[in-house]
């Protein structure tokens, strides 16, 4: 079988003090950061809600959620709108604060290596990896969505 047929299109996303690797298919859009409306009594990683295409999307700081950083730079930041995996009709999308534009990359089995040395011990990270020269984490999106749903329910 042709090796290129097994490759997938991925996206390398810079967050404060880290980088995420996601399949390109999970991304709906990249938008410019604007000040979100606050969510009362939300955890520090839930930054608020943004308006996008008729939705009020919760926006999260993965860097805070995973413990990479305690603060975020918002000036010049971008927002990645992600398609939710949970099938929750009330939360079909959520947003993620990024530091710059995501970078498309080809992910092949021989170029992606598990790299758990010094990996953060958090349940929102599936694995720490190295893709060629780039170190990144693969987020556990189902767990992130579950935590997000819990936080939104408690704030309601």
Features:
single chain, 156 residues, alpha+beta, five-stranded mixed sheet, three-stranded antiparallel sheet
Uncertain ranges: none
Name the helicity range.
Answer: 10-25%
What sequence of helices (H) and strands (E) makes up the elements?
HEEEEEHEEEEEEH
Main sheet strand line-up: 3-6-7-5-4
Strand content: 35-45%
Give a quick account of the main beta sheet: strands, pairing sense, barrel closure.
5 strands, mixed
Measure the end-to-end span: 51 Å
Principal-axes geometry comes out as globular
Structural class: alpha+beta
The number of distinct helices, counting runs of at least 4 residues, comes to 3
Average pLDDT metric: 89
Instruction: State Rg.
Output: 16 Å
* Overall number of strands: 11
Characterization of the model:
It contains three helices and eleven strands, in the order αβββββαββββββα. It has helices spanning 3-6, 62-66, 141-155, and strands at 8-15, 18-23, 27-32, 46-52, 55-60, 78-83, 93-98, 103-107, 112-114, 125-131, 134-139. The chain is α+β, with helices and mostly antiparallel strands. Strand 1 and strand 2 form a beta hairpin. The relative contact order is 0.24. It is globular and about 45 Å long. The chain starts with a helix and ends with a helix. The model has no long low-confidence stretch (mean pLDDT 89).
């Amino acid at each position: 079988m042709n090796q290129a047929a097994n490759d997938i299109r991925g996206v390398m996303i810079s967050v404060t003090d880290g980088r995420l690797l996601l399949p390109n298919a999970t991304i709906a859009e990249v938008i410019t950061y604007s000040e979100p409306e606050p969510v009362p009594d939300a955890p520090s990683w839930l930054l608020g809600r943004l308006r996008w295409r008729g939705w009020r999307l919760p926006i999260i700081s993965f860097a805070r959620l995973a413990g990479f950083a305690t603060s975020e730079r918002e000036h010049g930041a971008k927002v990645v709108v992600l398609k939710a995996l949970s099938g929750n009709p009330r939360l079909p999308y959520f947003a993620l604060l990024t530091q710059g534009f995501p970078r498309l990359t080809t992910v092949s089995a021989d170029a992606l290596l598990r790299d758990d040395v010094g990996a953060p011990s958090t349940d929102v990270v599936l694995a720490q990896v190295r893709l060629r020269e780039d170190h990144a984490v693969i987020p556990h999106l189902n767990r992130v969505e579950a935590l997000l749903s819990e936080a939104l329910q408690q704030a309601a």
